[in-house]
From TrEMBL:
Source species of the chain: Fluviicola chungangensis
The family this protein is said to belong to: Belongs to the TrpB family.
NCBIfam families linked: trpB (TIGR00263)
Protein name: Tryptophan synthase beta chain
Pathway assignment: Amino-acid biosynthesis; L-tryptophan biosynthesis; L-tryptophan from chorismate: step 5/5
Claim: Lyase is one of the keywords in the record: yes
């Protein structure tokens, strides 16, 4: 196990001042069981062998590290795309659900619960539950179910039960409340969280399962006779694809780590999800982290054109790493992301997910030295965003 202070929390799950496990006492035994099982099982050869076999033969890893030569020419640096968009189900999320489903099976669990906003994590969870023959219940805000109907249909086709969350704003945070309530009522079920958020040990565990991304980047650079990247760029919703892309580079001072958040309609518009800039410390989803809240501590309703970045918090490891200056955060507006998505489609013939387009939109904002090695983590593909793209570009 890697023990960098950036990725390994202390005994109580804290990264600096952020993290921990702020959960109802009723869940303490379930969380303790999870922590013990994660530690005793997920670093064994038996686990690694099964995990890596599924990543290779089911997910399609390693994903290519693609030299984007048209971008390189335009921006004057050696720009590479890590092609997570080519993973089974279309994004990096499956790396984590494969890891956790193996853990759940090892723990003897038969029922998996999850919550989802846009439906991407729900689909990745329903997929691995189908693969393992486990019961799957996904909580989703009623409003999100309407907005993301195709993903609801995917989950149902995969055999999952999608349960609407009908309280509050009927979106992700309400679905999260429902999932936690379910877990309290049925502590024997396995709660499968989709990003580096939630109570300890979830952030550490999800980062570990996503770390395969930077492990591959390191190997692929070596194969090309290159040593280390100068910049690694990833978008951040909760922060799992960024955690995976940064993981093995945290202790290399020469590598700049750049986390890109959604500025939505602008940082001062009140419709944004730029948590590291606009947030303050508070407890969200079981951990102490940076979150967007009003003066009464009410969690603010976030906004981003990209459903995967539309989250009012940020994983505690990123909150810490940004606060200490190890990671630099940038923010990108809806319009800048749309522009970047079109640019990538036209320059490289790759239609990126709107989330990944935020990472690409950081390129024009950054200074590059000639021959700098720059990695952009292309977290997912754009098929799911075609309605938004069509609407935005209808006058082209
Ligand atoms: C869900 C999602 C994200 C955001 O989640 P992180 O945990 O921040 O990685 C980014 N990109 C894509 C394609 C996604 O589906």
């Amino acid at each position: 196990m890697k023990t960098s202070k950036h990725i390994t929390p202390d005994e109580l799950g804290f990264y600096g001042e952020f993290g921990g496990a702020y959960i109802p006492e009723l869940l303490r035994p379930a969380i303790d069981e999870l922590l013990t099982s994660f530690r005793s099982f997920c670093f064994t050869d038996a686990f690694r062998a099964e995990y890596l076999d599924l990543l290779k033969n089911y997910v399609g890893r390693p994903t290519p590290l693609y030299f984007a030569k048209n971008y390189a020419q335009k921006y004057g640096a050696k720009i590479y795309f890590k092609r997570e968009d080519l993973c089974h189900t279309g994004a990096h999320k499956i790396n984590n659900t494969i890891g956790q489903i193996l853990l759940a099976k090892h723990m003897g669990k038969t029922e998996i619960i999850a919550e989802t906003g846009a439906g991407q994590h729900g689909v990745a969870t329903a997929t691995v539950c189908a693969l393992m023959g486990l019961k799957c219940i996904v909580y989703m805000g009623e409003k999100d179910m309407e907005r993301q109907a195709p993903n609801v249909q995917r989950m149902q086709m995969l055999g999952a039960e999608v349960r609407p969350a009908t309280c509050g704003s009927k979106t992700l945070k309400d679905a999260t409340n429902e999932a936690i309530r379910h877990w309290i009522n049925f502590p024997d079920s396995y709660y499968l969280i989709g990003s580096v958020v939630g109570p300890h040990p979830y952030p550490q565990m999800v980062a570990y399962f996503q770390s395969v991304i930077s492990e591959e980047i390191q190997n692929q650079l070596h194969e090309n006779g290159l040593k280390i990247p100068h910049k690694v760029i990833a978008c951040v919703g909760g922060g799992s694809n960024a955690a995976g892309a940064f993981y093995h580079f945290y202790d290399l001072e020469e590598t700049a780590l750049i986390a890109v958040e959604a500025a939505g309609e602008g940082l001062k518009s009140g419709k944004s999800a730029a948590t590291s800039i606009l947030g303050s410390p508070g407890v969200l989803h079981g951990s102490l982290t940076l979150l967007m809240q009003d003066s009464n501590g009410q969690v603010a309703e976030p906004h981003s054109i990209s459903a995967g970045l539309d989250y009012p918090g940020i994983g505690p490891m990123h909150a810490n790493s940004i606060s200490t200056g190890r990671t630099t955060s940038l923010s990108v507006t809806d319009q800048e992301a749309l522009h970047a998505a079109l640019e990538c489609s036209r320059l490289e013939g790759i239609i990126p997910a709107l989330e990944s387009a935020h990472a690409l939109a950081a390129l024009p904002k950054l200074p590059f030295l000639k021959d700098e090695i720059v990695i952009v983590n292309l977290s997912g593909r754009g098929d799911k965003d075609m309605n938004t793209y069509q609407e935005a570009f209808k006058n082209l």
